[in-house]
Amino acid sequence: MHIFCAYRFNFLLLIKRCPHCNSMGREDAVRETEACLEGEGYVVSHGEGCFDLIARKRLSVAVKVLSNVDSFTLAEASDLLTLSGFIGTVPVVVGERANRYRLEESVMYRRHGIPAMSPDTFSEFARGAPPMVSARRGGYSAHADPGRIASAMRERGLSPAGLAAVAGLSLKTVYKCLKSGAVDAATLEAMEAALGCRIGADSGGRLQGPDAGPEPRTTLKRIVSGHLDRMGLRHSFLSRSPFNLVMEGGRVLVSVVSGDRTRLAASAEMLRDIGNSFGLTPFYITPTPGDGCVAGIPAVGLRELPSMGSRRELEDALDARRA
User: Would you state the pLDDT for residue 258?
Assistant: First the structure.
């Protein structure tokens, strides 16, 4: 049994392959997303498992690509929220359609609390232009920036009553928007037409803080969890992710448990490539001490953990074994 861990790097984007569409469609979707990201100046590397690409820029995003966004499960959402919370990414589901309709452009939907959007809308999102309109049951909602509205009103010499008259809205609606910014899509469009400028605010893609993952269910995970608690590493276990453990101390680390040495050796080249591109430092925790390195990656034996009293001691051990 092995545990793979990796230090945090600042910006990460994970694009998950779609298990619900055919191979050609999946590959095409990943290639198109990769081309979009590279065109916007993201640094992109290939991965495997539940993500095909990782990319970094100013924006840090975690993306799952699906043909049908309604195939996104609650368990997958929980893991993506947990992982994104720890590593500081914005999770996004990208797909062409839902069960009963195609996703409209410039509209943000939600699946299990995670923003979902079409490929074209995601392209705009990657360029720094998030959708201003959110889909909700029974229609669409939007969010206006009260500060932008007030500024535009001053520039045009409009009072709330004057804006209401020009936009064809009630005075109550204008006051509500000036107070909270909460409007429906039609109201937002009418106000922007009356003011002659954009007043929409980001529809809210960023999530705050990590979601709680499941408790450790195996003896190995419980032992590791105890050592991480003692070393002051906040952590959470994942059930449907290539990273079944994510932890945070001075840095964020992600881990995967596997007893398959062939799999670990096969992943080593990919991990080194990611490390070279993003400053990621991977390491393994093995059931037995004395490995030193596994496939060129620093390793710490599970039995060595009790002697480590802090995160710093763990990091020092890895530094000493790094090739």
Answer: 61
Helix H, strand E, coil C: the string for 139-194 is: EEEEEECHHHHHHHHHHHCCCHHHHHHHHCCCHHHHHHHHHHCEEEHHHHHHHHHH
C-alpha span between 275 and 282 (Å, rounded):
7
Angstrom distance (rounded) from CA 5 to CA 283: 5
pTM > 0.70: no
Q: Which conformational region is residue 113 in: left (phi greater than 0), alpha (psi within -120 to 50 degrees), or beta?
A: left
**Tokens in use for 265?**
């050796």
Domain residue limits at 226: 219-321
SS3 state at 235: strand
For residue range 188-208, list pLDDT tens digits in order.
Answer: 777 877 787 777 665 544 433
How many degrees, rounded to 5, is the angle at CA 313 between CA 309 and CA 317? 135
9 and 279 in contact (C-beta within 8 Å)? yes
State in Å, rounded, how far the first CA of the chain is from the last one.
Answer: 23
Give residue-wise pLDDT tens across range 203-232: 544 433 444 566 787 887 888 889 989 988
The last residue of one of the domains, among 79, 108, 129, is 129
Q: How many domains does the chain have?
A: 3
